Amino acid sequence: MNCARCGSELPPGGAYCPICGMPRNEVHRLIRETRKAAQKAIIASVAAVDRASKELQPIVDRTVAALRPAVDEVGKALKPLADSTVRVVNDFATAFRPAAQRTARAARRVANRTATAVGPVVAKAAEKTEAAARRVKEAARKLG
Description:
mainly alpha, 1 helix, elongated
């Protein structure tokens, strides 16, 4: 525990503060008075907040009641816009789907034709590469 007057630490069981000489029982009395004052301040603050909230509640209720029609009107005004946006997106997706499918089919046909046209050339290049690799191996054996 600390002295209420100077703040120095009080020795256990000491009757007076060793720094300023304030009686220990006086320190206890000051601590009790401070605690009581703090409790009274808290109680008064809670009561004041409670009174203020009770006074403000009718104002909040009137404000909400006054704004509710405006909010409802805005909601009604935005609903057709939201509905039409959904319709436009759905219409676009419906219109776009066949074109996307045709594009995918065309790309698949091009890929198949390319593979068909390039396949023999790639096979011939692979044969020539294999033959060249065999010749290199044979030449390497003859040297080695």
